[in-house]
Design goal:
Elements: E1 15-16, E2 20-24, H1 27-38, H2 43-57, E3 67-74, E4 78-84, H3 108-119, H4 124-137, E5 139-140, H5 143-151, H6 153-158, E6 174-175, H7 178-190, H8 193-196, H9 198-210, H10 217-222, E7 226-228, E8 231-235, E9 238-242, H11 249-262, H12 270-282, E10 319-325, E11 330-336, E12 346-347, E13 352-353, E14 381-385, E15 388-393, H13 399-413, H14 418-423, E16 427-430, E17 433-437, H15 443-448, E18 453-456, E19 467-471, E20 476-480, E21 487-490
Parallel strand pairs: 17-18
Antiparallel strand pairs: 1-20, 2-10, 2-21, 3-4, 3-11, 4-7, 5-6, 8-9, 9-14, 10-11, 12-13, 14-15, 15-19, 16-17, 19-20
């Protein structure tokens, strides 16, 4: 694996640190991660701090009302998957894509506690302090957040957010979140119980119940994160670890396994093969709960012509964090409330919106039901090579699998260096079309093979924004995508 050094192109350089390195979906989140590393914290400490800041500065994409999924690699112990995503309410009788009956139990706070108890070095209060400071002291609203709040204003007002300060702000104005600051401080002092029990749990249940939803205090109290081994496959000369059920990470593993079965590099056909394998794998989305057993399913494709199966959907939001430290710990993660502002159900006492992850239910094995977990789009990955590890994650819902497939394939199948692979033009299968960045060099070839292309500007949101951190050779490194507000830093 080679790392690019150019500072004068779309290829963001690989930054190397002594104590650690972090890449995240916002520069303030990177700064929080760096702060923990300089204080002697682990990669997981930096991960939690960065995620918490994202929950403050990007409430349209993530928050304490949402979920967190992570993969953690420790030298000598391998990779562990932490699934901080909750189940549907035990009293669920009807469900929807938005509003009070689209909410599953928010899992991020218990996910933080599980991470910190296993791999943290610093107190939870210290990890959440940067986020608490920003919530209390405010931050300048960026144009994207202001536009998202305006676009979702009707949904937010129906969800009880009519008096939320954000709705009265324009881009460039300062957003203060005192209720969220208080909640973060309480979680720092008392752990996950400050969220899943007592006054906070009562406030969440009351906000949902007032709008006809089923989420109860008992649902919150019963929540536990799932900590388990990942699904791991061989690809070329490396191993790739993905989240186990109930996530779409298995679809990435299936596509990589399918590409491995096809053999040597295929030159100009690489993008065509990856598109076909993606769409073939997405036919198994509803069966993602079968996990590694799906790797036995063949993915027959035409190596020359587009089948136009389609399958992947839209949905855009999510935010990523990847961290590595000097002791060889590497962590890959994503946080999300699913759609813009999730369900748009607002909890005034907490200053948060709740997720709409029940919108991920479909049919068959992924049909909705009481206490069931829907197939989850969050799919961080980890690449293992000898004693080194690379964390990769990206936003984009169904695009996550596709973006990571392209990056991993270009590096470990095509010989491109990691930074250049992250920067390279991308495609995305969505709704039967192949969205493609304007600079993509294979557009004419893909069209000739029968793919229905829709050209979008380079860097359009649907092409994701990769965060990457790892170990190798000279110690911890991080790389940020040039897309969105992705950033990287070292300590």
């Amino acid at each position: 694996m080679h790392l690019a050094d150019s500072f004068s192109s779309y290829v963001r350089p690989a930054l190397r640190g002594r104590l650690g390195a972090v890449a995240a979906a916002h520069p303030l989140a990177v700064a929080a991660g760096q702060e923990m590393l300089t204080r002697g914290g682990s990669a997981v400490d930096a991960l939690i701090a960065a995620q918490a800041v994202l929950c403050v500065v990007a409430p349209d994409a993530c928050g304490l009302g949402g979920d967190m999924l992570a993969l953690v690699r420790t030298p000598g112990a391998g990779v562990t998957a932490v699934n901080g995503a909750g189940a549907a309410p035990a009293g669920l009788s009807t469900w929807s894509d938005t509003g009070a009956n689209s909410i599953t139990v928010p899992g991020i706070v218990d996910g933080w506690q599980q991470l910190a108890s296993r791999w943290g070095k610093l107190p939870l209060a210290a990890l959440l302090e940067p986020a608490r400071r920003i919530a209390e002291g405010g931050f300048v609203v960026p144009p994207g957040l202001a536009a998202a709040a305006l676009a979702q204003r009707d949904r937010l007002e129906k969800g009880g957010a009519g008096r939320w300060a954000l709705l009265g702000l324009k881009a460039g104005e300062r957003f203060f979140q005192p209720e969220l600051a208080t909640l973060l401080a309480a979680i720092g002092r008392n752990g996950a119980d400050a969220f899943y029990a007592g006054e906070t749990a009562a406030a969440i249940a009351a906000a949902v119940g007032a709008l006809g939803g089923a989420l109860s205090r008992d649902d919150l109290a019963a929540h536990r994160s799932v900590v388990a081994p990942p699904v791991t496959i061989a690809f070329r000369d490396v191993r790739v670890a993905v989240q186990p059920p109930m996530t779409q990470g298995i679809l990435l593993a299936m596509a990589l396994a399918g590409r491995e079965a096809l053999g040597e590099p295929a030159g100009d056909r690489e993008d065509h093969l990856a598109i076909e394998l993606t769409e073939a794998a997405f036919a198994y989305r509803e069966r993602a709960g079968e996990g590694a057993a799906l790797l036995a399913e063949p993915l027959p494709i035409d190596p020359e012509r587009a089948a136009r199966r389609g399958g992947p959907r839209a949905y855009l939001h999510t935010a990523g964090v990847a961290v590595s430290d000097a002791e060889g710990m590497v962590a890959s993660s994503l946080v999300s409330v699913f759609d813009d502002f999730g369900s748009c159900v607002f909890v005034p006492a907490c200053g948060i919106v709740l997720n709409n992850r029940a919108g991920g239910f479909t049919g068959g094995a992924n049909a909705p039901g009481p206490s069931r977990r829907p197939v989850h789009t969050l799919a961080p990955a980890m690449v293992l090579s000898g004693g080194d590890a690379i964390a990769l994650a990206t936003p984009g819902a169904d695009g996550q699998v596709q973006t990571l497939l392209q990056v991993i394939g270009k590096v470990f199948g095509g010989g491109l260096d990691l930074a250049a692979a992250i920067a390279a033009p991308r495609w995305r299968s969505e709704g039967g079309d192949i969205l493609i960045e304007a600079a993509h060099p294979m557009a004419a070839d893909l069209a000739a093979r029968g793919h229905r292309l829709r050209t979008l500007r380079d860097g359009e949101m649907r092409f994701g924004a990769v965060v990457c951190a790892g170990t190798g050779g000279e110690g911890p490194f991080a790389i940020a995508d040039w897309r969105r507000e992705t950033w990287a830093g070292v300590a």
